[in-house]
Predict the structure.
Amino acid sequence: MSKGDRHPGEILVINRTEVEELLSPQACVERVLDTFRWVGSGEVEQTNPVNLYVHDRLGPEPEYGHGVVQAFPAMIRPLHRAAVKWLGSYRKNPGRDLPAISALDLVTDIETGMPLALVDGTSVTNMRTGGHAAVGAKYMARPESETVAIIGCGNEGRTHLRALGVLFPIRRVVAFDIHESAAASFAEEMGNELGVTVDIASSVEAAVAGADIICVVTTAPQPVLMEPWVEAGTHVCAATGFRDVDKTCATAFDKWAVGWYRRDLEWVEGPEVGRIGGLQPGDLWKDDIYADIASEIMPGLRPGRDGDEERTIMTHMGMPALDAAAAALVFDLALEADAGTWIRVF
Ligand SMILES: NC(=O)c1ccc[n+]([C@@H]2O[C@H](COP(=O)([O-])OP(=O)(O)OC[C@H]3O[C@@H](n4cnc5c(N)ncnc54)[C@H](O)[C@@H]3O)[C@@H](O)[C@H]2O)c1
């Protein structure tokens, strides 16, 4: 079935279960790699996320968290697709039995402007975030990395590990979560799925000892990974802009890379400082960053890792192009598999 056989007002709704069945870690990592390349070569139009702050983020936190609704628009010329992610984030929503983050991706055709699909954007976000961590690690971690520490055993812990498994010969995983039950279910599920040993550590410091790659993917409001605990040769994947990672890592390590300057400077020294991510005004500056992946490291303008002893960290807060390109892939895969539900909107 192709969209061409459908009325122009029909769109394909693709739910979370379908996204998770259709989008393999391998396909997602490949799409994220392509997207970074397209961003670096100027084949993508995107804005930084449009942040609509529901509450004053500099004021006291309301009962269910400082709410923010965000739009992530991007047009990926090589795919002939544009998409926008519409995301709501309320940190303490689980306290009212709602997810902290919920998102939808609307995919359109750039030749005609017609809407094509409405995709569960939460699962796409989870997977593309693991994907960009893995792409950062491809350039910044030792290629033979086989021991991974996962700090925070939730959605991102899972997608980070799956995506790293596409690029690295992982043999051992050490997991830590503040909730023991989360670590236990993670260990059982991921051990079975990936066929690797997953040990549970009693502290973050114990979990990261001897790790080749450390993923810090918690919802902790303060740093849980401290700089002196990270050994020579280790790479850190940090998903929260130093909210849960000691910001000293940025300056004390050999290299701090970001995904793409135009996105990541927003939370380093731009309007998101103090609002999204963990940095406060004046904590860090562009000059502290070694390079970005999209426009410097991938095109070969600056090297990634240099030798076995460097301590490296990559942090990227997610650019709209990643959601758009991954959601467009989900649409194509759904058409191939005859998956999803068509609805007519006009
Ligand atoms: N950079 C990006 O583009 C991007 C995208 C999506 C999510 N994120 C961030 O990734 C983080 C994880 O998201 P998720 O969807 O996996 O959340 P989740 O709720 O599924 O999992 C978070 C886990 O962290 C654990 N945790 C909380 N405090 C901890 C602590 N002090 N020590 C150890 N573990 C702790 C929780 O128990 C939970 O198991 C969030 O902070 C989110 O904002 C970043």
Remarks:
- Residues 125, 129, 151-157, 176-179, 182, 217-220, 224, 239-240, 316-318 surround nicotinamide-adenine-dinucleotide (CB under 6 Å).
- The chain has a mean pLDDT of 96.
